Amino acid sequence: MENLLNISLVVGAITPIVIGLTEVFKTTLKLKKQFVPMTSVLVGIAVCIPVLFLTGQNPYLGIFGGIVSGLMACGLYSGAKAVTGK
């Protein structure tokens, strides 16, 4: 149960970082819209594995946390975009 709490805290903390890095990749690499969710998940995994490894957690949990963080970042961005209408 303690691992789940640690992972949820890390995922919540790195989701804004994943949003920012995905935007950087989207603008610099001129990604098509269909590749943005996969990029978000890959960035989430790339950020979450080292963070959880440095905190002493299992690296496999980093993969899970990265997938969750990437999907949260993609959904959060599209939801905010739908609300603001931009």
Question: What does this protein structure show overall?
Answer:
The protein is mostly helical. The protein has one domain (2-84). The chain is 84% helix and 0% strand. Helix 1 crosses helix 2 and helix 2 (36-54) crosses helix 3. The N and C termini lie far apart (40 Å).
Please provide a brief summary of the model.
With 86 residues, this protein is mostly helical. 84% of the residues lie in helices and 0% in strands.
Task: State the main characteristics.
single chain; 86 residues; mainly alpha; 0% strand; globular
Distance between the termini: 40 Å
**The number of domains:** 1
The share of residues in extended strands comes to: under 5%
Q: What's the average pLDDT?
A: 85
What is the alpha-carbon Rg in Å? 13 Å
H-E string: HHH
Helix content: over 70%
Q: Compute the number of helices.
A: 3
Low-confidence segments, given as residue ranges, are none
How would the global form be characterised? globular
